[in-house]
Amino acid sequence: MAKSIWILLVIVAWYDYEIWQMDVKTNFLNGFVEEEIYMDQPEGFTTVGEEQKNEHDPFVYKMISGSSIVYLVLYVDDILLIGNDIKVLGGIEAWLPTQFFMKDMGEASNILGIKIYRDRSKRMLGLTQSSYIAKVLKRFKMENSK
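The line above is the sequence of Reverse transcriptase Ty1/copia-type domain-containing protein; the predicted C-alpha cells follow.
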C-alpha cells in the first residue's frame, strides 16, 4: 500500500496534480458486537463494474474521463483524492459525503503520520516524519540528543 502512495505522490509532484484529503468518520467501527464475525469474499466473486479493478492494490481506484484523471486512495478511514481536474475532483469531493459521514480536510498535509510539504512552483513535494521522531525521542527521554 505504501508503495502505491509514494508512486502517486511522485505523479502529483511531476504533473502538478491536486491532492486532497478526506477523513471518514469511524463511529460505525466503534459499535459493540457480541459475536465473532469472519468474512471472506468467495473465490471468483466479482462486483459488477469492477471487473478491471486493480488486483495488486485494491485500495487505489482510477477514473479516466476524457482528459480528466482521478485517483482515489483509501487507507483505513482516510481518503486521498488525486487528479488533474479541479472541477471533477470537486464533484467527487461533494458526492462522497452524501454517501458516507466524512470530513473534508482540504489539501493533503499529512499521510500515514508523514507530513507533506510542497513547492508547486518547483514541482517539489517533500515528506518528513520530524514530529514522529520528536515523539519517539520524548517517549524514551532523549529529547536533548544530537
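Note on the example: The chain has a mean pLDDT of 84. The longest strand covers residues 68-75.
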